[in-house]
Write a structure and sequence with these properties.
Radius of gyration: 19 Å
Structural class: alpha/beta
Number of helices: 8
Number of strands: 4
Order of helices and strands: EHEHHHHHEHEH
Oligomer: single chain
Strand order of the largest sheet: 1-2-3-4
């Protein structure tokens, strides 16, 4: 298998590779491009889960509480720009249905429960230079010898727009190396 993903897609292919590897399948290439990190989200999820359990909130109610708090956080951080987002349409007090249209928020809530179980195969992380390399991926890169870290220019967004050529060159190098290793087997 040749697997690669960007941001949340990197998280998905990481889990795919982990499960395939555990089944004895060969992973010739696993590339994570600026993979998603959620350390703060994990703590928020834990606290809201505890509070929600004490208040006997359903999981749906806990999600609603999280999305409301996220909305208030974004309002405080971004101000009017937050209200101009596509799903809010200027609505300063959105209802639960509107809040559930916040895809990044819902995805963050769901993935914050993900347990990063070990993957012992070779992995390449392409990290955007302007992003802070921290959290679970930094710990994994420091602890596991099978992880190669390569830096690509730009931020989380510009590494795949303004710096697409450089990103494509890095991916090409990864594919050539995987093909060479596969032929050597």
């Amino acid at each position: 298998y040749l697997l690669g993903g960007f941001c949340n897609g990197a998280l998905i292919v990481y889990e795919m590779a982990r499960q395939l590897h555990a089944q004895g399948q060969g992973i010739d290439l696993l590339v994570l491009i600026d993979p998603l990190t959620l350390p703060r989200m994990r703590r928020v999820h834990f606290v809201l889960g505890r509070v929600g359990s004490l208040l006997r909130f359903s999981r749906k109610q806990q999600l609603g509480l999280f999305l409301r708090l996220r909305h208030l956080y974004l309002l405080a951080r971004r101000g009017k720009k937050h209200y101009e987002s596509e799903h809010l349409n200027g609505n300063t007090a959105p209802n639960a249905e509107v809040l559930r249209q916040d895809y990044p928020g819902v995805f963050g809530w769901l993935t914050s429960q993900y347990a990063f179980l070990p993957y012992t195969g070779k992995m390449i992380i392409l990290w955007a230079k302007e992003e802070v390399f921290a959290g679970v991926w930094k710990r994994k890169a420091q602890q596991e010898k099978q992880i190669a870290l390569r830096v690509v220019p730009g931020s989380h967004l510009t590494c795949r727009t303004e710096h697409l050529t450089e990103l494509a060159e890095q991916l090409h190098e990864c594919l050539v190396e995987a093909q060479r290793l596969h032929l050597d087997k």
